[in-house]
Structures are given as structure tokens and as C-alpha cells.
Amino acid sequence: METQDLETQDLETQDTDGIAHSLARDGAVVLTGGEPSPRALTVAAALALGERLRRLFPQRMRSSSDGSPVHLHADSFDVVVDVAGVPVRRRHPDEDYALVQLTRSPSSGGESFVADAYRFVDALRTEDPELWEFLTQADVDFYGAWAGLRGLPSTPRAGRHVEYTRTGRRIVRRTDGAVPLHRDPDAEHIEAMLRRFGQAVRELEGTLPRFALEEGDVLLVDNYRCWHGRDAHEGERTTRILTVLTADAR
User: Fold this and answer.
1) CATH classification (class only), 8-245
2) Which of 8, 19, 166, 205 is geometrically suited to a Cys-Cys bond with 30, CB 3.0 to 4.6 A?
3) Taking a C-beta distance cutoff of 8 angstroms, is the pair 141, 207 a contact?
4) pLDDT tens track for 197-218
5) Are the beta carbons of 94 and 246 closer than 8 angstroms?
6) What pairing do the DSSP bridges indicate for beta strands 8-10 and 28-32?
7) What is the Cα–Cα distance from 43 to 61, expressed in whole angstroms?
């Protein structure tokens, strides 16, 4: 289940064919040669995804001091705010690409890692059929653990960890917000499967290659296919994150 080291592509060469090839092959690519700025992150998204790019959501900053690990996850959230009486979406549960730009390097640690979730799920079919069946057949509430957060819709977001878009593109979700649906008769089993899923993902983390981003580098991830995370670090570390929808999104 190991994921190979990711290829790097230099943004200054504007080799869009090379970026597209790396992204299609590995599900993720590191884009180098950019400035650690909001404008550079937006330009990176346009250059990498081109005419497929449909919608960009507000960029957000993530800073941590002597940060603990960020475990494998797929970016996914559902946040709608009111702006002058008009509902405005700031995050989308089916955003299909995520771009993570390092803007400040820690003094030590903080290496990134990426897992091919397609490969992980396919292996489960023979290695753990019960977990595979849960991920592909059972509905959960993906944000139920975060109920009460401002901007998060009150209606439960029901779905399966493994689903498909109308064009056949596979989505493999990974979030710490998943809980059983309200009064689900199989709630006890679902809770056990969620714990088992989490444990399997933690075990996978230890097998993955690590790589260090430089300030300005952008990790571009196919959010339907890959999960990403980072190790613990010392000192201050800051990233800027952009999630998008393309023409291929659900």
C-alpha cells in the first residue's frame, strides 16, 4: 500500500503537460518555484488545472506552534455563511482538489506524506472484507461530530466513504467528523467500523514516504483519490490552503 515519492514540477517552466501527467499518475504533485503568497497559490491552481477549473473557495491559513501530527485526511467541509442577506458558500463537501502552500517552515519536523486511497480501499477487499463493505455500503453522517459549529448546516450530510460521481469518478472520503446517522439501528457496528477504519489509516501512515516542502512550494492533491497529512514539528509552521471545484467534480 505504500505510495511512491511524489514528483516535483517547477511552476516557472509552466510545463502544464508535465503537471497533468504527474497528477494523473500519482494523484498528487509538488509544485515548486512559486512565491509564498495568495496570488501565487491562485496562479498555481489555474496553471495546474487550466480550463477544468470552475470554482475557487476562500483561501485559509493554518498556523501551529510545536504542532502535533496532522493525520491522513481528505479536505472536505460544508460551510455556508450569510453575507448581507445572501447565503455564500465558503467550503464544499465535494471539493475535488486541494492546494497546500508552505509559507513558513518550522525549525524542525513537519514533513508531509500522501496516501493513495484508491490503492488502500482496493487492498481492503481481500485483506479486510468487512471494513471494505462498510466503506462502500454504509451511510454515515460525515460532519455529525462537529454539530453546532457556526456555518455548518444543521441537516446531516449522509453518504458513504466510497462513492462515485455521475461521470464515474471515484471518491474516497476520510474525515474525523463521521458518526452514525441519528438513531441508526446499526450505530454500534458503525462506531466500531469507524474506529477500525481510523486504526487502519494510522497504520498506513507509518509506511508512507516523507517529503519536506520549501517555503512557496505547493502540494496539489486530487482530493477524491488521495489523503494527505504531516508529521509533528518544532517551532512555527504556516500553510495557506485553497480548495477548488473542477469540471470533473461531483
Assistant:
1) alpha beta
2) 8
3) no
4) 999 999 999 999 999 999 999 9
5) no
6) parallel
7) 17
